């Protein structure tokens, strides 16, 4: 928005643009953090599933064995 015109003081309410820029920066950072957390959570889910599969293979679990075994 700074390149609308080259003339200084041409925008009567440029403080509104500053407020909008601040809000956009805040939400951009907030949404990026949520994405990083979602990626980390998904990686953890996949790791847990893989470890559970590995343990079932190693222990040779069958349905008649107790879950703690």
What can you see in these coordinates?
There is one protein chain. The termini are far apart. This protein has one helix spanning 14-59. The longest helix has 46 residues, at 14-59. Helix content is 67%, strand content 0%. It has one helix and no strands. The mean pLDDT is 80. It is mainly α and 69 residues long.
Which bin fits the share of residues in helices? 55-70%
Radius of gyration: 27 Å
Class computed from helices, strands and strand pairing: mainly alpha
Largest sheet descriptor? none
Percentage of residues in strands: under 5%
How would you state the average pLDDT, rounded? 80
Short synopsis of the structure:
This protein is mostly helical.
Please describe the structure with a list of short key phrases separated by commas or semicolons:
69 residues, mainly alpha, 1 helix, 67% helix
């Amino acid at each position: 928005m700074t390149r609308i015109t080259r003339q200084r003081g041409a925008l009567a309410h440029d403080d509104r643009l500053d407020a909008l820029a601040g809000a956009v920066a805040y939400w951009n950072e907030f949404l990026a953090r949520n994405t990083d957390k979602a990626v980390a959570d998904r990686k953890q889910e996949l790791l847990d599933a893989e470890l559970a599969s590995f343990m079932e293979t190693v222990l040779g679990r069958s349905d008649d064995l107790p879950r703690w075994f």
